[in-house]
Design goal:
Number of domains of chain B: 2
Number of strands of chain B: 5
CATH class of the largest domain in chain A: Mainly Alpha
Shape of chain B: elongated
Structural class of chain A: mainly alpha
CATH superfamily of the largest domain in chain A: Winged helix-like DNA-binding domain superfamily/Winged helix DNA-binding domain
Distance between the termini of chain B: 100 Å
Order of helices and strands of chain A: HHHHHHHH
Radius of gyration of chain A: 18 Å
Distance between the termini of chain A: 52 Å
Number of helices of chain A: 8
Number of strands of chain A: 0
Number of domains of chain A: 2
Number of helices of chain B: 8
Largest interface: A-B, 34 and 28 residues
Order of helices and strands of chain B: HHHHHHHHEEEEE
Oligomer: heterodimer
Largest sheet of chain B: 5 strands, mixed, barrel
Strand order of the largest sheet of chain B: 1-2-3-5-4
Chain lengths: ~180, ~250
């Protein structure tokens, strides 16, 4: 039976621990991929992803099955990865900037953007590591994890309009890196 | 594939061995209630402090003096209880942190939530200050019957801006009038051509007024005079008034 994530979570909440194996099966690859792009040079991503699953299980009764499960588990992963980065880097990570202060117009993606998205994925993959984390994360979630603006806002706890701004700015920076690379070639 | 198996097996093993146990639902409900209670407590504290600031400024007359021009505005700024203002800012910061835990707040720009909170607490604070609550607390404090907050009220009540005199008109004289302040001290107020009456100059016995001016030899040389309409903070008092000044 192909149950929806939320239905599987309901079973886990009711005490079916085995059902949590299905959640691990469904999200392991996604979270490993997310972790690799997020943390790039880390070799302990598998350990971090394991901790994400354990935290998900421990807090699973806090999940409201009326909502979508995917942003919820990505939020846990985001926190885990950010904490891992904080431990490693000496300078404190700051996710607070003027982007979240003021309202920005939200630009919806259209058909041409969708085609652009597939091409961009290939380009992004190469230059993603050069991007600042605040731009990198929304780009990973939007272009590689297929999340919508609102879901990304819920994962990162930032305004929806800021998601759009960061994606647009990140794209610009990546395009610059790409053009520079092309010119050097 | 091996790594994949090991993550799944390891997670399920820890769950089955009890090393990872689900937190009960009540734990999260309790946490949410605590955040909710914290939010309510900080809202009430902020309303209390804002209304107390308005009450203090109203009580010592400073609230009314910006109408006297730059000198009034300067004195008003000096008279603001900045310690309470700082406490208020700290409470607003805590409120913002608590509010941003909710999706309705973090999905919107920071500016919206902070402006929303500030407008809410200012309007609420003005509303609270329009009640008799602080009058009653202040009276109890002066009678030393108010625990905890008593010293705050007594402390601020005894601090009055140096050249601001709120009081009641007791007698009209040739060059001005006499006022009596709340400690039953009487002052002679001298009105001259330079005295400012931003909201009219008809003064009658029994009027509640605020006088700004320098006290010399027991006489206040009025720089500005205005009536206090009532206890509502933004009240500006009567307006159609006959101007009467002496040399």
């Amino acid at each position: 039976m192909n149950y929806k994530d939320e239905e599987v979570v309901k079973k886990v909440q009711e005490g079916d621990a085995e059902a949590f194996g299905t959640i691990v099966d469904r999200y392991e690859d996604k979270l490993l991929r997310y972790g690799r792009r997020f943390l790039s040079d880390r070799d302990d991503i598998a350990d971090l992803v394991q901790d994400v699953f354990l935290k998900t299980y421990i807090n699973i009764k806090n999940f409201n099955i009326e909502l979508r499960f995917s942003p919820w588990i990505y939020r846990i992963a985001h926190n885990e990865f950010v904490n891992a980065l904080k431990k490693k880097t000496k300078s404190p990570l700051s996710f607070f900037d003027v982007d979240i202060l003021f309202p920005h117009p939200i630009s919806d993606e259209n058909e041409s953007d969708r085609i652009d998205k597939e091409t961009l994925q290939r380009i992004f993959e190469k230059f993603l590591n050069t991007l600042d984390l605040k731009y990198r994360e929304p780009i990973i979630l939007y272009y590689f994890e297929d999340m919508g603006y609102q879901e990304i806002a819920d994962i990162l706890h930032i305004p929806i309009s800021t998601v759009g701004v960061r994606i647009a700015r990140g794209k610009k920076i990546l395009k610059k890196s790409y053009d520079l690379f092309q010119n050097k070639k | 594939m091996e790594g994949k198996k090991s993550i799944k097996n390891s997670v399920l093993e820890k769950i089955k061995s009890g090393q990872a146990a689900m937190k009960p639902k009540w734990h999260f409900v309790f946490k949410a209630i605590l955040i909710g209670i914290g939010l309510v407590i900080f809202i009430l504290l902020t309303l209390l402090v804002i209304s107390l600031i308005i009450f203090i400024l109203h009580d010592n007359g400073a609230w009314f003096i910006p109408a006297f021009g730059m000198r009034g505005i300067g004195r008003f700024i000096i008279s603001i209880p900045w310690l309470l203002v700082l406490a208020c800012i700290a409470f607003i910061v805590v409120l913002e942190i608590l509010v941003r835990k909710y999706s309705f707040a973090y999905r919107k720009p920071f500016l919206y939530s902070i402006v929303g909170i500030i407008v809410f607490v200012i309007v609420g604070g003005i509303g609270v200050s329009a009640t008799r609550m602080h009058d009653n607390f202040s009276r109890l404090a002066m009678e030393k019957r108010l625990p905890f907050a008593g010293p705050i009220y007594r402390g601020f009540r005894t601090q009055r801006p140096a050249d601001v005199y709120p009081g009641t008109v007791k007698e009209i004289t040739g060059d001005g009038f006499f006022i009596e302040d709340r400690s039953n001290e009487t002052f002679h107020v001298s009105v001259s051509r330079v005295t400012r009456f931003p909201f009219g100059s008809e003064i009658v016995i029994g009027d509640e007024i605020v006088v700004m001016g320098d006290l010399k030899d027991g006489v206040i040389h009025a720089f500005g005079i205005r009536k206090i309409g009532d206890k509502i903070p933004f009240s500006q008092g009567p307006r159609q008034i006959e101007i009467r000044k002496t040399n």
